[in-house]
Specification:
This is Inorganic diphosphatase. It comes from Bradyrhizobium rifense. The protein is mainly alpha-helical. The radius of gyration is 12 Å and the shape is globular. It starts with 8 loop residues before the first helix and ends in a 20-residue tail after the last helix. It has one helix spanning 9-23.
Length: 43
């Protein structure tokens, strides 16, 4: 896989939920900005 957008929508939803769950212990706010390709990953 070269692009995260190749994942099925359900897999992306589960990944977001996992990241939210692992962030519960942190005092930082977590905000998802969307799913973009590799060119936007470094920004």
């Amino acid at each position: 896989m070269e692009d995260i957008r190749e994942l099925p929508e359900r897999a992306r939803e589960e990944l977001e939920e996992f990241l939210r769950a692992t962030n519960v212990e942190e005092s930082k706010a977590l905000k998802f900005l969307g799913w973009r390709g590799p060119r936007h990953a470094g920004k």
